[in-house]
Amino acid sequence: MYSQGKNKAYSGQGNFAGNFLTLIVCLVIFAAAIFMTSFWNLATAWWPTFLVLGLSVIAFAVPQHILGRSDAHPDKTANENAALASVDAEYRDAIASEQVKH
């Protein structure tokens, strides 16, 4: 991919500040989740558990599933689906022609 006349090797190249800030925020959220485990006891086991699960989901799933999809352009996805459908059609035709020969 080219950006401003330079070849970008991957989608995160040149975005160090944003990537580093995201890393720090996610690590702080995960540290908060770990800290919530210090409030576990037999009397109040539910709310720390929900907070640990919620913060862990935010710390891991949000960056992985939302921020990680920045390269999934709709046109690219549509083109990949069209290419995959073309290969599938070619495979079906090849199987059908083999069955006719036998």
Summarize the structure.
With 102 residues, the chain is mainly alpha-helical.
Question: Can you describe this structure?
Answer:
The protein is mostly helical and 102 residues long. It folds into 2 domains: 1-71; 73-101. Helices cover 69% and strands 4% of the residues. It has 3 helices and 2 strands. The protein has helices at 16-36, 46-66, 74-101; strands spanning 2-3, 6-7. A two-stranded antiparallel sheet has the order 1-2. A hairpin with a 2-residue loop joins strand 1 (2-3) and strand 2 (6-7). The longest helix has 28 residues, at 74-101. The protein starts with a strand and ends with a helix.
Helix content: 55-70%
Order of helices and strands: EEHHH
Structural class: mainly alpha
Return the average pLDDT rounded to an integer. 77
Distance between the termini: 47 Å
| Biggest β-sheet strands, sense, barrel | 2 strands, antiparallel
Which spans of ≥5 residues are poorly predicted at pLDDT below 50?
none
| Shape call | elongated
Helical segment count: 3
Total domain modules: 2
Strands side by side in the biggest sheet:
1-2
Radius of gyration: 24 Å
Strand content: under 5%
Q: Care to count the β-strands?
A: 2
Please render the helix and strand layout as text.
Elements lengths: L1 E2 L2 E2 L8 H21 L9 H21 L7 H28 L1
Antiparallel strand pairs: 1-2
Question: Notable features of this structure?
Answer:
102 residues; mainly alpha; two-stranded antiparallel ribbon; 4% strand; elongated
